[in-house]
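Exercise 3.2. Students should predict the tertiary structure of the chain below and write it as structure tokens, then compare their answer with the key that follows.

Predict this chain's 3D structure.
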Amino acid sequence: MAIEVTQVLLSAQSIDGAVRKHAEESLKQFQEQNPTGFLLSLSNELANNDKPVDSRKLAGLVLKNALDAKEQYRKYELVQRWLSLDAAVKAQVKGCLLQTLSSPAIDARSIASQVIAKIAGIELPQSQWPELISSLLSNIHQPHVKQATLDTLGYVCEEVSPEVVDQDEVNKILTAVVQGMSASEGNTDVRLAATRALYNALGFAQANFANDMERDFIMRIICEATLSPEVKIRQAAFECLVSISSMYYEKLSSYMQDIFNITAKAVREDEEPVALQAIEFWSSICDEEIDILDEYGGDFTADSDIPCFYFIKQALPALVPMLLETLLKQEEDQDQDEGVWNIAMAGGTCLGLVARTVGDDIVPLVMPFIQKNINEPEWRQREAATYAFGSILEGPSPDKLIDVVKHALSFMLTALMKDPNNHVKDTTAWTLGRIFEFLHGSTMETPVITHENCQQILTVLLHSMKDVPNVAEKACGALYFLAQGYENMGSGSPISPFFKDVVQALLHVTHREDAGESRLRTAAYETLNELVRCSTDETASTVMQLVPVIMAELHKTLEAHEKQNELQGLLCGCLQVIIQKLGSAEPTKYAFMQYADQIMDLFLRVFASRHATVHEEAMLAIGALAYVTGPNFSKYLEGFYPYLEMGLQNFEEYQVCSITVGVVGDLCRALEEKILPFCDGIMTQLFKDLSSNELHRSVKPQIFSCFGDIALAIGENFEKYLTYAMPMLQSAAELSVRASVTDDDMSEYTNQLRNGILEAYSGIFQGFKSSPKTQLLMPFAPHILQYLDSLYMEKDMDEAVMKTAIGLLGDLADTLGSKAALLIGQSVSSKGFLDECLSSDDHLIKESADWAKLAISRAVSG
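Answer key:
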């Protein structure tokens, strides 16, 4: 098959579609019929220097795809398939890959490096391929093999976690990498590969960074590399510094002066990719210090785990001027390009982070720059001054800013109306949005926006919404935060007299010919939604008048020939907010009901379009409609159920599945027992979802929680599902206690899973309360109490889990009563955990604990 493989691989890259398709099918067939031969043929192809580079490169790529996939379930299957292969076959494939590292063809070497790393990612955690690192390091002496080896080491470090490589091997990797980075290395490709490899290996260097001498050596080599004549090496070296700033923040004190000097030089003189990384270093230090100050609230003692070194505060007098200079390096058309990222934008972002880190101290350092440049004839200076002002509005105390902002407000409004330059207007509208976001609202002692100036502000913003798309989009954003500031007003909002005009202006924006540019249409609908959400009773009639208007718009999209998925999604989102608003008060809720049938009909037509984003928005809107219509929603269930089932089956677009599960919960709360006829179908689908490896794990906690919603709605009728639901909950519960929490994401997921399981149990116990069938739950009580005890002993619950867990203890005692008294008395939860929750500072946990205490005492005494 070897000769044929070369030809098939070349044909798979043919410009002729038919030839390409036939070749791809042949490869697929080969893989299915002879997986071992397939892997061996590909690895031989890749290792054979006599073969064409194109076929070798694709052979490597196909090999890589046979080892890894984006979807977790698929990745798991491929890993298991590799691990189950015959050891001799695996050894042959790995031998070919290592041999390819010395190939003269750079493309073959490069893909071989990546495939080796994928195999390492599978085998090293299983304590297989122990000789890999030493095999690689023995290759390090010939230049082109040296580069490929360093690339491979970098990829391996990216694929595996530090604990699977022992310290002795880590030391050898770092030695090879640091030698490759040194200025004495004559080959720039080798030096670049080494610098990139170090970036990936930094997570392995904990012990080395704890040793002063080794750390000094690594830092010196990196700082030298930032001065390399080769731009890519300088960029990669700064990327290493950025990574070190967060990974080893507490080790940086003695290097900060040198780092400031090299970053300042890079920002002022170097090429953009390097300068951007130099700014990113300071942004990263800000992120670290913001996190530390948030966590510790500034209360440091000598034995604090991670003290704050106040690097930003110390660097402030030199750092702020450097960042202000960057603001003057704008690009001509940067306001037109959404995804643009340049030195001016990076500098402004960093300045904003500095303001959040040091608070009031930044204001006197920035104000002279603003005053000097804000009236200059050159647009760059006016824009930079405005950007600087907008960037420092989050962080300093309102007292420090209020006078400046009051003074600046009328100036900004004039600039937004009259400045001849679009850049300046764009940044001015953005800055107004920042003022309204951070210095406006019910918590402000001295309001910036009063009844007197609100009309002027609205006049200017409505005028700007007719400006070019990027300026109009920022004006919508400013209006969004202006409306949000009046959210808790009750009545008497200064916006109310102008509400109708503002709504009309926003609707007008959505119809602009150029509304597709600069996210303008999306921004207009988001602002309209916020305006509705924060509106008061005085404007309820205008919100009611919006219903037929938005319905007509949605109807228009359904009749249109071309697909209008994005617009349909925006309109469904808008209807959701309107439904929630009108449904939150009895008079408007009653008046709104006249539209319910037509709206539901529109939503069902939207579902027929089968587009994921639209489905998400329409599902959320239906959830809102169910909440408002309550038991009356039952008349729509027949027509809606097929789409509900489709949503629950949508593994591919798991967000749709997730939202649909949430809507099942909404329907249960709205319909209660009326949902019963559809429960068999829903529960069957939920069981399938839980059993599937394809469904994204984030949906599973919600499904458990949904069991609780269903049980609450249908009460003792849940009996027929207990046989399936309880074992699933039990095995998930065991898994959630034993979960090895390796990082913050895993910790968050574990707590979500626990919360979902606890909510399911709670719903089931509450659903069976006062039923003659409560004894059906008795067999599950020992396991549930044991689960609560285990969670308590683990000591790693977040507040939400604590609240649900102690609530479940109360529900179990309340439903089972004296039958469970003995079991409860034997559990740790009913003592230590209950006491801990009773003395909690979190009033929700304390409230749940008070209820649990009462329920337990009733059960024990009953």
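Discussion points: The chain is about 75% helix and 0% strand. The radius of gyration is 32 Å.
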